[in-house]
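User: For documentation purposes, I need each entry recorded in a consistent format: the amino acid sequence on its own, followed directly by the corresponding structure tokens. There are two entries in this batch. Please keep commentary to a minimum and don't merge the entries.

Assistant: Recorded as requested. Entry 1:
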Amino acid sequence: MRAITLPSFGDPSVLTLSEVIEPPVGPSDVRIDVVGAGINGADISQRRGNYPPPSGAPVWPGLEVSGVVSAIGDDVSEWRIGDEVCALLPGGGYAEHVVVDQGLVLPVPHGVSLLEAAALPEVAATVWSNVYMSAELLPTEAFLVHGGSSGIGAMAIQLAHALGSRVFATAGSAEKVAFAESLGAVGINYREQDFVEVVNYEMGGTGVDVILDMVGGDYVARDIRALGVGGRIMVIANQSGDTSSFNVGSLMIKRGRIWATTLRARPLAERTAIIASVRESVWPLIEQGLVKPTVDSVFTPAEAADAHRRMESSAHMGKILLQFA
């Protein structure tokens, strides 16, 4: 089968469309003929040599796909050949076929196209596991997400808004602020405004209850200043590449928590539990039209390097997809 591989690490030009051996289908596995694959920040890090796949995963990138079930293992009970599905992966999504444990597979939500469904698993699992399963954001609480125009940001805004929270989101241009606001957030242009000042002014000085931070660096210290008493900061990436430094006393005064997480390398049991919770709690919101996949652009496998360049340019709003079929 064809897959987009990494013969070496480096800039987007290293992405190579190659012939690889198709993974075998185990007893609890599902094989999916891929229609769409989502592009994520983790793929960029892997391409640069900074985020190796976990043991046992394919060595080429790709953390989420949509497509059609083409084979099932002997122990698979829920899925059937021909089912339209999407799935969360530990790797290998940039390919014509993927093999994944049945517990990481989701049905395509009603009202969502098969291609669009590729934009859902990674962002839904990341946001739901961090903001709701870990930080336990309540409808009465306020929420701030950085990178509000990203795939994760767009999902976070929509979920928190749909579930009743007041939402703030940072973004880097007037167009991106407008995008975040169209999804239900109070938009903050971080190039022109101090998000700490905006949040504290809008909240009357009480701060927000949960912050989803994928920037890291000096944002963590600023997050603490924007945090309310008992607040929770979920750090899911360090896109700034900088070291975070903050005064522990300022966090103690607010009785706050900082929790850094990743999703990809968690044990299978944890990832399947997250997917089950996403199916139970997020999928109904999508099927009701309260939360929607946000697709910025679609590229062919031969254009994978251009897709990565678009992501690295930060010009995108929503998810970037590869279309395999």
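Entry 2:
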Amino acid sequence: MTFPDPGSRPAGHTRWPRLAWVMVPTLLVSAVLLAAVGTGTLPVSLAVSAQSMVISGQNLKISADRLQGTGFTQYVGTDRSKSKAYPEAIAGIDSADLYNLCQSMVVRLPVVGETTLRIGAGGGGKPAHADHLVVHTDDLGGDAVFSNITIGQDASTFKNGPDGVAGIFGQRADTVRIDHLRQSTREVTAATFRLTGLHLGVKAGAKPCY
């Protein structure tokens, strides 16, 4: 968006700081909707694919007290923005429950500067739930337990989960549990994402989940 030259406007007609604050809610609503669709916050049907879209390249931070899921697959792949390629670990989970989920994204807005969009859900013992969850991550931490895990499987032979490239190293497990999840991601998709006890907040400054 291009703003008019302040020197060319009639004197006394527009207060630009006030106008900026009026526009911030509109910008934030747009950001919320884009983030909600991109992270699966809005229940939408998606064709899940490792190369399904051109990403923005911005990082979303995700944390949870516990992630518990069934039908886990993972392999290394590549995400692409309009100007850059990113190596990522691409993980698929058929059915996932997330306890005390937090998602945050720090964006820079005109006039306001750094602003944090933060979404919380899945508290009080009622987890958020995702079906056919796919997460592209470059950094993940936590305490993990896998059951019936197979390491080294060709990623293209997975029966469930995102499609991998033939010959790429992959791993799979019947179930996965990650306590104290801390994850940085550039892309998340899901067939549906149910957020129980949803709370969305927008605050000035950088205030990520972790």
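Summary note for entry 2:
Residues 11-204 form one domain.
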